[in-house]
């Protein structure tokens, strides 16, 4: 093989790519297969989902889900961490906007409560609860769903999203640990333990998942590769659940 490379190198000194191609053809089949493997970057372009350089890819699916259910964002609305989605999708339908956060330093919190234990949460108080990418941060996720059900009024709607495929957040750098990843089947079963009217959907493609894991922001991803959904790649799982009247 070395002699072959030497001879080819003399003949194609100006183009090592051509020499490599000829070597690949002369190599055993297993070696040729290895040479054809795609070379993926060994490290992400940006960590933390690309959040520091733009909107993460998963937010395209999350915000699309909320936009399709914008009519549910009405009356007294509770949202995790801030009220960005309440204002964006609720508009004039929102009579009162509340923010749930269990952090002692939360600047925007109007409800200081624990979704896992239920401590500090009002009962049957909200027409809509927007709970995005939060259940994965709660160890007793079944208790969290039960408490989400309890804080809704009869007829109130839970709009929830959870991560499917995702990287692991550094527990040493995060205030709330990251415990879980979900499938469409898992979220459906969780919600049906307390809600009767449940609709769950998953979103993702191999290209979207790859971009998300490598931290490529959504603005740099061709929208054409974000759909249609490939069931093998559940990047985000979304659920709409209504408390029975």
Report on this structure:
There is one protein chain. Helices cover 31% and strands 19% of the residues. The protein is an alpha/beta fold. The chain has two domains: 2-36, no CATH class; 48-242, Vaccinia Virus protein VP39 (Rossmann fold, 3-Layer(aba) Sandwich). Helix 5 links the parallel strand 1 and strand 2. Helix 1 (2-11) packs antiparallel against helix 2 (16-26). It is globular. The chain starts with a helix and ends with a strand. Residues 1-16 and 22-27 have low confidence and may be disordered.
| N-to-C SSE string, H for helix and E for strand | HHHHEHEEHEHEHE
Number of helices: 8
CATH class of the largest domain: Alpha Beta
**Overall domain count:** 2
Short description:
This protein is α/β, with parallel strands linked by helices and 245 residues long. The protein is 31% helix and 19% strand.
Topology (SSEs and partners):
Elements: H1 2-11, H2 16-26, H3 29-36, H4 58-68, E1 75-80, H5 84-90, E2 94-100, E3 126-132, H6 141-151, E4 152-163, H7 184-192, E5 197-203, H8 206-213, E6 236-242
Parallel strand pairs: 1-2, 1-3, 3-4
Antiparallel strand pairs: 4-6, 5-6
Helix pairs in contact: 1-2
Question: Any descriptors?
Answer:
245 residues; alpha/beta; Rossmann fold; 6-stranded mixed β-sheet; globular; disordered N terminus
């Amino acid at each position: 093989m070395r002699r072959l490379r030497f001879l080819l190198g003399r003949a194609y000194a100006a183009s090592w790519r051509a020499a490599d191609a000829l070597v690949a053809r002369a190599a055993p089949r297993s070696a040729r297969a290895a040479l054809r493997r795609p070379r993926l970057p060994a490290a992400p372009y940006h960590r933390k989902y690309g959040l520091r350089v733009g909107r993460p890819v998963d937010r395209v699916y999350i915000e699309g889900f909320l936009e399709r259910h914008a009519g549910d964002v009405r009356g007294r609305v509770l949202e995790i961490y801030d009220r960005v989605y309440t204002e964006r999708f609720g508009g004039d339908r929102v009579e009162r906007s509340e923010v749930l956060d269990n952090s002692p330093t939360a600047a925007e919190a109007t409800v200081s409560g624990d979704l896992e234990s239920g401590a500090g949460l009002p009962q049957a108080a909200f027409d809509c609860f927007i709970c995005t990418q939060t259940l994965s941060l709660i160890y007793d996720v079944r208790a969290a769903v039960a408490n989400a059900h309890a804080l809704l009024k009869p007829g109130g709607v839970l709009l929830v999203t959870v991560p499917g495929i995702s990287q692991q957040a550094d527990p040493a750098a995060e205030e709330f640990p990251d415990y879980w990843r979900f499938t469409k089947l898992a979220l459906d079963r969780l919600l049906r333990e307390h809600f009767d009217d449940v609709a769950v959907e998953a979103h993702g493609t191999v290209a979207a998942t790859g971009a998300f894991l490598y931290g490529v922001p959504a603005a740099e991803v061709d929208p054409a590769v974000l759909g249609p959904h490939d069931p093998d790649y559940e990047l985000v799982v979304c659920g709409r659940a209504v408390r029975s009247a």
